[in-house]
Design a protein that fits this description.
mainly alpha; 3 helices
Amino acid sequence: MDRDQILARITAMVDEERVLRDALASGRIDSATEHERLSDLERALDQCWDLLRQRRAKAEFGENPDDARVRPASQVEDYEG
């Protein structure tokens, strides 16, 4: 995934977060469903942000950004870099 694809995926997930919150507020889904889906989205977002940071770091140090790989959610979850 290149930088633009990663950013597009992040944007899509943020949009989905908004839709979920709106669905909860309007009563179309319950809080358990919202919470479960938001948890999935947060893990995927953590992975995307990590991948983007890896690509930037590799480019900064003269390496090929395409060598960056998605790491397991457990490794990047709640990353605060």
